[in-house]
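Page 37, continued from 36.
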């Protein structure tokens, strides 16, 4: 199982379990149908340029990442039925439970191991 780390000078664990969404079907489904995410779990959607919260049942935090997994933008507390627009050069999006990305900032680099 993969995990994702924040490398901001001090390596910290952002998620212990990363759910990949790389096929067309997995990317389209995303977190739909779930009632929540367990603490320490995130979904990495790639390739992905933007996300929506239509039909979602719970709020999330989302980080928009470039091809090198550098954080371009963090959208916190995205509620059901909201849209989140990606900045230019977005290659993937990391989604986690609301509050999981409270310490994540644009410019942070992530490591997938």
């Amino acid at each position: 199982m993969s995990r994702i780390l924040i490398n901001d000078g001090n390596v910290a664990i952002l998620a212990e379990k990363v759910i990949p969404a790389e096929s067309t079907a997995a990317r389209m489904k995303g977190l739909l149908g779930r009632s929540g995410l367990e603490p320490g779990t995130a979904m990495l959607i790639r390739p992905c340029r933007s996300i929506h919260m239509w039909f979602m049942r719970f709020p999330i935090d989302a980080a928009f990442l470039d091809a090198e997994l550098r954080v371009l933008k963090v959208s916190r507390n995205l509620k059901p039925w909201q849209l989140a627009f990606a900045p230019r050069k977005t290659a993937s999006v990391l989604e986690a439970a609301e509050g999981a990305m409270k310490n994540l900032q644009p410019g942070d680099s992530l490591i997938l191991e």
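The helical segments are 24-29. Flag for discussion at group meeting. The radius of gyration is 13 Å.
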